[in-house]
Amino acid sequence: MAASHTPAQKVVEILHENESQFEHDQSSRLTPPDTPTSILDDPLDADNPSTPCQTQEAPRSNPQSSHTLEFSYDLEIEKDGISARLVEFGRGVWSVVYKATTRWVSDAPALTPPPSPVASGRILAVKVPLRHDAEPVLAAEAQVLSQMAATASADKYSVPFYGFITASSSIVMSAIPLALSTHIEECALRSKENFSTRTMLDPVLSMPCWTTLAAQLIKGLNWLHAEAGVVHGDIKPHNILLRRRRISDSSNSAEFQFEALYADFSSAHSISLEESGHLGGVALSALTPPFAAPELMTVSAMKSPGMSTPASDVFSLALTLLAAATGDLLLYPGTSNMQRLAMSREGYRVLDFVRSGHHGTRVPRRGLVERTIVPAVVKTPSERIKTAEWLDVLSSA
């Protein structure tokens, strides 16, 4: 069974239900988790050492930004057939993502058509704020997604965005059921169960798959920075979703079976804001050790409002690719969270740290993984490789 609502009715009811549940949960928890999860983040990620650390300010809507794409379709939020509870893809401190379907087009004419057609009955993901102070976070994210959606090839590099429901600050997007973090863990487990000295020097994804993934993500980041004009701000395996490719019967079974798409732009901002100096209320909202660039993790950076940059995105993607090679989402080999955090603050030494751990063989010296990672983790941000040049490094390896 599915409960049919207009977008405004649905989201207001859900928001009220979520706020009541949040207040109830908080009565038994002195300190809430630090960050929202992405569509498919495990609800327990708040207790994971890789959970983002919040700075003092969250991003707010910028009145100078372009028009936000409105969602003009009716929705049906799916319910579990047994418990009649709303079906969730995931949740965090700021938001919860529900499974929904479209059933018909609303009578209200849309000012701007969706960038991607929304077929009747299509499964969607609806990201709804859990509490009122999360509304500006999702509103700012929707503005960034609208900017991206207006750029050619958006659906090739990021999770398709279908619009924003203003009444509840809710984001409607395509439902993609696999996160890169989950895929890495699955590949690491298979690699451990089928250990072979023949492949112990290769990425856990396999070298062909890792190379394809790296090319997809570097191309996507180049598009994000150069074409869409957006800095992601929180790149990590949990914020990359994998859409299964259509593979022909003649294709090699060893090929990477997915298209990697960037997701969760709650920490993103437009590059034009930084260039114009109109930062307004936009501030760095989340950092995720071990993937955050070290310059963003200094005491001074975390005490004052700051912004992620294209260079910090490059660093975060490099560590994401390193995790895809080693199979270890914690990356650093420390025995405690504090040890790993200390290593994260010296992230430009990441290869030395990784090689001292159990997964160091996956990154052989002068190998493809090392040659891809090294120019992206330089200590000085301005000296890190640019995305267009990064593609050349990968293709020439």
Task: Write a concise synopsis of the structure shown.
Helix content is 33%, strand content 14%.
Q: In words, what does this structure look like?
A:
Among the domains are: 75-103 and 120-174, 2-Layer Sandwich (Phosphorylase Kinase, domain 1), CATH 3.30.200; 180-245 and 255-269 and 285-396, Transferase(Phosphotransferase) domain 1 (Transferase(Phosphotransferase), domain 1), CATH 1.10.510. Strands 1, 2, 3, 4, 5, 6 and 7 form a 7-stranded antiparallel beta sheet that branches. A two-stranded antiparallel sheet has the order 8-11. It has 397 residues and is α+β, with helices and mostly antiparallel strands. The chain has helices at residues 7-26, 135-149, 154-157, 180-193, 207-227, 271-276, 299-303, 310-326, 337-344, 350-355, 368-373, 387-396; strands spanning 2-5, 73-78, 88-91, 95-105, 123-129, 161-165, 170-174, 230-231, 240-244, 258-262, 269-270. Mean pLDDT is 80; it is low at 22-65, 104-111 and 279-284. The longest helix has 21 residues, at 207-227. Helix 5 (207-227) runs antiparallel to helix 12 (387-396).
